[in-house]
């Protein structure tokens, strides 16, 4: 049964609506403010006075984009109510209320909701999502991102991508490359946190035989081999500052030298850098040179975290399931409970986490994907019961690492600090877990 929630501090309105709402065929709940938590498919919202604070509370409400909202007001012109309507609220009923019309609208919503929940039990075999390059998503923030990427792809400007882990920075970088005039040239991704400083330097600049122990022969770096291509420097803030200044010189003059050589060479490589730290904090904390930041940030692009992408969450879940269904010839479907849990979770690991979660659930499910096939999606701190006696040391370590990452919103530098290991060690461990998962699938 569809759920309807009435929010009003106006006693007279609550009384007036009591009969039409109870007769409308919904499971009905009520509160006087938006502060009290509730779950609903349809919200009738009738505050006696509506101001800026109420507008902000609505915008931050977890159901702002997940339920339909009907507004009731006394009809006094009010800019905050107008703003609310522009934010996607469907109906604005002004007093005196036409109760017959209200009842008709409630019945229409109820029928639509019933149709949606029956179609939600159908196995998704198609995707509704827009795709731009390698990026999926139909939400307004993603469409804005596509416009920005389209513009930057036509230029040769360096780009800085800022966003949480798993929000699609590397996909955005690959999309920019694919849409640029460099598309036929190499795209190389270097993770500055996963490699040692020496290796990053030698990968970028190359080296000559004997430049350091183990340099057994000459080696050309990416600036030489990929001069006409795109270099993606992931986790740029983990690059040692000394190397950052060498990189700055390349960006300013195009000049570089192989490690151990005096010969100056030139490159025209395009740099796309990425970070999951805030650039301001990284500069203040001494992780990012300010002059390098200004060189890179001709085009700073922010990747939105999944929790700010409205309906994309559920549609991405359906998309990933549809792909698995078609690939494996199955027709597994989500239950309504699973859809609700997916929609309400904050997804700190963003699209990567959602994708893994759906792919696992698809493996575990016989027919339906319900809460039993999903990991626990209630928000809670580290679950130490995962590390009860009897757990192997390997599993305990894995649980602790994943829980710390989750607590740090997937920020690997912060998680590594808390765990007392280097970022490189953390990467190596995560890589091992990922390989393990692939074997298991
Ligand atoms: N917009 C998106 N559309 C489709 N898939 C996405 C999107 N964003 C992320 N993903 C999925 O998440 C995975 C991780 O994305 P990506 O490597 O681009 O994230 P990232 O921000 O670079 O993460 P990290 O900071 O951890 O390196 C991708 O392989 C893809 O499966």
UniProtKB/TrEMBL annotation:
Transmembrane domains' residue ranges: none
Pfam hit, one: AAA_lid_14
Entry's Gene Ontology BP terms: regulation of DNA-templated transcription
PROSITE patterns per UniProt: SIGMA54_INTERACT_3, SIGMA54_INTERACT_4
SUPFAM superfamilies named among the record's database cross-references: CheY-like (SSF52172), Homeodomain-like (SSF46689), P-loop containing nucleoside triphosphate hydrolases (SSF52540)
GO molecular function: ATP binding; sequence-specific DNA binding
UniProt keyword Disulfide bond, yes or no: no
Residue intervals of the Sigma-54 factor interaction domain: 135-363
Entry keyword set: ATP-binding, DNA-binding, Nucleotide-binding, Transcription, Transcription regulation
Domain of life from the UniProt record: Bacteria
InterPro entries: AAA+_ATPase, AAA_lid_NorR, CheY-like_superfamily, Homeodomain-like_sf, HTH_Fis, P-loop_NTPase, Sigma_54_int, Sigma_54_int_dom_CS
UniProt xrefs under PANTHER family: PTS-DEPENDENT DIHYDROXYACETONE KINASE OPERON REGULATORY PROTEIN-RELATED, TRANSCRIPTIONAL REGULATORY PROTEIN
Listed name of the protein: Fis family sigma54 specific transcriptional regulator
Organism of provenance: Gallaecimonas pentaromativorans
Taxonomic classification: Bacteria, Pseudomonadati, Pseudomonadota, Gammaproteobacteria, Enterobacterales
């Amino acid at each position: 049964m569809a759920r309807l929630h009435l929010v009003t501090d106006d006693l007279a309105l609550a009384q007036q609506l009591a009969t039409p709402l109870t007769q409308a065929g919904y499971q009905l709940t009520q509160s006087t403010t938006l502060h009290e938590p509730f779950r609903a498919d349809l919200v009738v919202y009738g505050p006696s006075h509506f101001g800026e604070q109420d507008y902000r509370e609505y915008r931050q409400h977890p159901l702002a984009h997940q339920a339909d909202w009907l507004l009731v007001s006394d009809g006094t012109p009010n800019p905050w109510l107008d703003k609310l309507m522009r934010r996607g609220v469907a109906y604005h009923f002004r007093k005196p209320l036409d109760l017959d019309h209200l009842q008709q609208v409630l019945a229409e919503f109820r029928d639509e909701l019933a149709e949606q929940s029956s179609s939600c039990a159908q196995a998704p075999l198609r995707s509704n999502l827009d795709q731009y390059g390698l990026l999926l998503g139909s939400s307004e923030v993603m469409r804005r991102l596509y416009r920005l990427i389209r513009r930057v792809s036509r230029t040769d400007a360096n780009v800085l991508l800022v966003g949480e882990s798993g929000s699609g920075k590397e996909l955005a970088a690959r999309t920019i490359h694919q849409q640029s005039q460099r598309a036929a040239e190499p795209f190389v991704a270097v993770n500055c946190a996963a490699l040692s400083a020496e290796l990053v330097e030698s990968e970028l600049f190359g080296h000559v035989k004997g430049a350091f122990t183990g340099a057994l022969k000459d080696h050309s770096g990416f600036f030489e081999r990929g001069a006409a291509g795109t270099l993606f420097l992931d986790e740029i803030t983990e690059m040692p500052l000394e190397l950052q200044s060498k990189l700055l010189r390349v960006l300013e003059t195009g000049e570089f030298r192989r490690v151990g050589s005096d010969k100056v060479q030139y490159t025209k490589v395009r740099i796309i850098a990425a970070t999951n730290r805030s650039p301001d904090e990284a500069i203040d904390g001494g992780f990012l040179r300010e002059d390098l930041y200004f060189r890179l940030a001709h085009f700073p692009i922010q990747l939105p975290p999944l929790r700010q992408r409205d309906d994309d969450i559920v549609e991405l879940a359906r998309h990933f399931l549809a792909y698995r269904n078609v690939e494996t010839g199955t027709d597994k479907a989500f239950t309504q409970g699973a859809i609700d849990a997916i929609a309400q979770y904050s997804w700190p690991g963003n699209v990567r986490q959602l994708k893994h979660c759906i792919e696992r659930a698809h493996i575990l499910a016989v027919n339906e994907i319900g809460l039993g096939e999903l990991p626990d999606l209630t928000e809670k701190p580290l679950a130490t019961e995962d590390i009860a006696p009897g757990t192997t040391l390997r599993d305990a370590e894995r649980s602790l690492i994943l829980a710390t990452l989750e607590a740090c919103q997937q920020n690997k530098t912060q998680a590594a600090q808390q765990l007392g290991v280097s970022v490189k060690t953390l990467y190596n461990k995560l890589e091992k877990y990922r390989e393990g998962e692939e074997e298991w699938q």
